[in-house]
Amino acid sequence: MRRILPALAAGSVLPLVLGGTAASAADDSGDVTVTNTETVQAKLDATGSLREARVYEQLALTGHGTATIANPVSTSGLRNLDGFGSYTVEDGRMIAQLDVDGERRVRTVSDFDGELPLGVQVTYTLDGEPVQPGDVVGRSGVLEVHYTVTNLTSREDQVTYDDGRGGTGTATATTVVPMIGQLVTTLPSSFTDVTSGQAGIAGDGRGGTRLTFQMTLFPPIGSPTAEFGYTARISDGVVPAASLTSMPVSPLDYPSFAGGSRSYASGAASGVDLTAGAIQIDDNLRRLHDGSAELLAGLVQMHDGATTLAAGLNDEAAPGAAELAAGLNARALPGARDLAAGLNDKILPGAEQLADGLSGDAVAGARRLTDGLTDQLAPGAQDLADGLNDQLAPGAKDLATGLSTRIAPGATSLASGAARLAAGLESAQTSAPALVAGLEQVDAGLARIDAGLAQLYGRIDQLPTQAQPLRDGIASLRAGIGSKAAPGAGQQPSLLYAVDALRTQLGQAGTDAQTTAGQVGQLRAGVTDPTAGLAAYTALLPAGAQAGFTQALGSIDGNLAALATGLGESATRLGTASATLARVECGLSAAALPGVCDPARPGLLEGLAGVDQGVGSLVTQVVGSVQGGVGDGDDTASDGTLRGGMNAAQAGVDQLQAGGEQLVTGIGQLGTGADDLSAGADALADGIGSAAAGSKRLSTGLGSAASGSTRLADGLGTAAAGSGTLFQGLVRASAGSRDLAAGIGTAADGSSQLASGLDDAATGSSELAVGLSAAADGSSQLADGLGTAADSTPQIVDGTKRLSDEGTSQLVASGEKTAASYGTGYAVLEAGAQRAATEGMAYGAPEGAAGATAYSIEIAGVDGGSASTLGKGLAALALFAAVGVVTTLLRRRPA
Description:
The chain is an alpha+beta fold. It has helices spanning 4-9, 255-375, 377-460, 463-481, 495-528, 543-588, 604-630, 642-707, 716-839, 869-892, and strands at 23-24, 27-44, 50-72, 79-80, 88-90, 93-111, 118-126, 129-131, 141-151, 155-162, 168-175, 179-187, 191-195, 200-203, 209-216, 225-234, 242-248, 850-859.
């Protein structure tokens, strides 16, 4: 009996290995499916030290035919539990040829000679003082029991993951053979005020308290070490025994952890997508930063050029043009007009009268004198004497005085002024082309500035295109989050769809767990029902065995109650997990779950939409502001744009050029007129000088004639000759006076042309001053506008750099951290699944067969007595019945 009971008790952990899938073993004939389960039963003392351990092997065969089995086992103390026959052992394998017709089981037990994958340590304190387990017996006080269960398969491995940059990252991580377990202990009714921060607490139906501790002994879902315990107030104390059941699992396939594993895989993929998108965004931001820096450098150069232009126009060109206009209007033009008026209104009429007098009266008088001397000498001698003394002599003297003292000096001054005017106009005509050429250079410079502005206008228009990859990256990130809509054929599910599906599945799993708890309740009724359950067989047992059987049924009922409680707690945790995933959905999108998510707290999807809108608005504002400030080619100064100011400046320069050309032409005309004026003035001065000399000679002659009129009779021959000479001199004087009148007329015409040319020059110089003033204002506006643009552009440069440094770079780091964290976690889970597949069994299964190993660890209690052998036997009988049911289910699972 002692050898059989442990094997039967081991059946209590078999429900933990039902996840194994049977496979066909190598057979000699027919079709036989083999499933191998190993159960390691270990007994520990009350502190967790190992006393002994056995391994129970069970082979479940189904099908029809003959199969040869080679099952790896512990050969130490190997015994057949199904009979008295023995098995052949070769190289650590049990060899058996078995005939199967339907179902067949083969069971063995042997000493466990390996290392337990779990370490257990139990410590006790009574009233705050550490004690040994035996010291608790019979005492009262506050007892605290602390369990430490450690997965001893830990080791450091190198794992790899996708780093989000197109490569892989490597990390050193702790991997284990993933183990899950449950520790159950029942405290007697003498334990009161029981508390525990880790256990599920329920009654055992007999006044005691049942504590159940769940363990997930593998990272990253759990930890290789689990610590838990309880505190109770005791009287007449004992140390209750505890049962720990555990098994290796694959976290990628085991239903309770497959969802969590997929979450790590999804998190790693999200981190990779986030990193890749953030890197693309950061690269685009850096290109935008470089373009903004180039734009800033161009604006600074344009601002410097515009400032120099404005300084030249304001400080030199505009004041010089104003002074030129002032000089022409205030001095040259009035002088030219006075000169023209004097020549036309005074000198020219006098010269014409002189010419008329000489040609008409003097010549005619000389002719008549000659005739009179010849024909009327006697009668006219007295009249001649009177005329000479009373009229001709004084008039000739006055004429000589006027010509010598007034007309001759004035003609000389006129000739000098005309010469100076011609020299000044010649100098102005020499300097004027330089002004026009300078204006052409200004116009060429303004054309280059306008071309630069047009280029700036075109290049800033490319900013939306350059920013598009940034917006595409955001759109890709938003598409990765997606919506709850199911993916189409060939499409990858979105993150939001996966989270929503996981939340729904967890909710359904909670509902299923709750339903299963109800079914366990029905199973409890099948055990304890006094008419239809196992309790109905109590009366069939011997009277001495009925109490033990009833106790065993109570233990089974307690186990089922604990299972129902655990299922209920699982349902609660699954509901909590579902609610947590609902918050995750809300974090992804505030519109994911209407009525659940707070619309006032936008999720990641809405935040990305806001970033996309902000980038679009930033690009639109930058393009609109710069293009609005630069303007089009047809803008005017009233539009307040740079190109409008440039157009106004160019128009002013065009006016300056036109005025400058007119100025050059007018100055040329003035120079020609001034040369004519100078020549006429010189001729006038010479003629007047000759006239003055002649008038003096005339005055002297007339004086002599007057004084000699008495001697007229004596000198009639001489007088006749003198009259002939006089006649000829008057003819010449008449011709000179005509030349004098013509020269003065020419001078008058030249002075009029001079006045007209100076008037045009004054008008042109005024227009030049106005144009240069407008150009100066435009250049100042241009400099100010470029200065504003240059001052504003660093905000773009700084903004893009800050957005890269403080935003996208952090986003890249966050994505890399997420990819590394979740990628490492999933890699650890994959490594654990691999280790579970290769190291999960204590000894291994036959080739081609499915296998699994479970561990049943009994931690001894201390109560000062021993348990009833009959009670243990009855408990084993009940567990044997449960083992039979489980084994049947395992064999009937489809291959």
